[in-house]
Specification:
Strand order of the largest sheet: 6-5-7-1-8-11-4-12
Radius of gyration: 22 Å
Helix content: 25-40%
Strand content: 15-25%
Order of helices and strands: HHHHEEEHEHHEEHHHHEHEEEEEEEHEE
Number of domains: 3
Length: 424
């Protein structure tokens, strides 16, 4: 480090991507592994909202339309506000916000079974016997969460129509498991009982804190620290119950998101990341359109188009988009071929997703499929490459290793690399 550059400025520039100009002999990966820089990246409070398109949305009716092809279907491709990029006419509002978004059109993930494919896309690698890998939410919670945080690290909002995929913290343990909400958008058992007055609840907490400090001063141990940390976390979760209550928002904001469950959950997601929750997953089911694909996507894309656009605008207006990565992703795409029921079946050989916000170079369409959308002809990427790209956008070293016993396990699977073309 040159003497004229202060430690604080070095950390700020390095974390912002300018460190290579300051330290010529230090690679980007080495910088990310530096404890000082790693802690600075965590301090910046990067967050993720994953919009999970459960069942598998059609790339041909969203991000990679093929109008005029035998596989193209009835919908047009429309220009976006970024010259040269066209998407489906079913996403007109998103098309006018493409400056925030990078599309990846060249995913080839090979697996087209719902359960196995969902696990692959959530964890960035195939399952192995005897190993339960953590999903993306758990990894982000582990890397970007704070031990002293009073808000959840990982919240997963699902609908009752798609309850089989709940997320998993795998070998990272229960500390990073998701708070899973399916029956209600408000967590159960964290509200203060009506029989306990606010004053008594507050006084009891203060008494507990005083006694704990006295006990801790005389009996310092890992077990005691863990107990106090768990108690403080529960207290924090109780205090954060209002984050799940959209009635706390002005009526005008609630009206912007709309009355649908997906819209309301996207509003909750915004409230959560604004409060410091590192990872929120919102699922919109059910895209599994084996029959009547075009009618299904007219309905679902209208909801996605509206909610994603409002969410991006809201995050941007609040200064949160530069720190919040918004992902649209499902377990796979849909077949180019149209079946006898006018549907599209499972397809994992050439499909799409989108990334917007933090760490992403907006206005990019990466990769290419052939004229009928059957194969990837440029920029092929697998699930691990996408996982590594997401981690890199968040400033997380994808090659960093967790130790499972004596076995090192990198955050992104061996051999996977970030797609640098979509990174800011």
């Amino acid at each position: 480090m040159t003497p004229s550059v202060s430690r604080r400025r070095f950390l700020r520039l390095a974390a912002g991507g300018a460190g290579a100009g300051l330290v010529a002999d230090m690679s980007a990966v080495q910088m990310l592994r530096n404890p000082l820089i790693a802690s600075e990246l965590k301090r910046q409070d990067k967050r993720v909202i994953l919009l999970w398109l459960a069942g598998g949305a059609s790339q041909l009716e969203t991000w990679d339309p093929k109008p005029g092809a035998s596989t193209g279907g009835p919908f047009r491709a429309i220009p976006t506000n970024v010259p040269g990029i066209h998407i489906s006419e079913l996403l007109p509002q998103v098309a006018m916000r493409m400056q925030h978004t990078a599309i990846i059109r060249s995913l080839n993930t090979k697996i087209a079974d719902h359960g196995t494919a969902a696990a692959l896309m959530e964890c960035g690698r195939r399952n192995e016997p005897g190993v339960q890998f953590p999903d993306l939410g758990a990894v982000v919670a582990r890397e970007l969460g704070r031990l002293d945080s009073q808000v959840p690290d990982y919240v997963s909002l699902y609908t009752s129509t798609e309850g089989r995929r709940k997320g998993t913290s795998g070998f990272l343990g229960a500390r990073y498991a998701p708070m899973f909400l399916s029956d209600s958008m408000t967590p159960a058992n964290i509200e203060r009982l009506e029989s306990v007055s606010p004053d008594f609840h507050r006084d009891r907490a203060e008494l507990q804190k005083t006694l704990s400090k006295r006990f801790l001063a005389e009996s310092r141990s890992h077990s005691v620290d863990s107990h106090l940390s768990a108690y403080q976390r529960v207290q924090g979760l109780m205090a954060s119950a209002d984050l799940f209550d959209i009635e706390q928002e002005p009526e005008a904001v609630r009206d912007q998101y709309g009355p649908t469950q997906f819209g309301q959950q996207c509003l909750i997601a915004r409230r959560l990341v604004e409060a410091g929750v590192p990872f929120v997953k919102v699922a919109r089911a059910w895209w599994d359109s084996h029959g009547q694909n075009f009618e299904t996507h007219q309905e679902l894309c209208a909801d996605l188009d509206h909610c994603l656009s409002v969410l991006l605008d809201d995050l941007h207006d609040r200064g949160l988009l530069e720190r919040t990565l918004v992902i649209t992703l499902g377990e796979f795409g849909r077949t180019p071929s149209i079946n006898a029921s006018l549907g599209r079946d499972h397809f994992a050989s050439a499909w799409s997703c989108s990334l917007s916000g933090a760490g992403i170079r907006g206005g990019v369409a990466y990769g290419k499929t052939d004229d009928e959308g059957r194969t990837v002809i440029e920029g092929e990427a697998n699930a691990g490459d996408l996982f590594a790209t997401i981690l890199a956008a968040l400033g997380i070293d994808h090659e960093h290793e967790y130790m499972l016993g004596a076995r090192p396990i990198p955050l992104a699977d061996f051999g996977c690399t970030p797609i640098t073309d979509v990174l800011g």
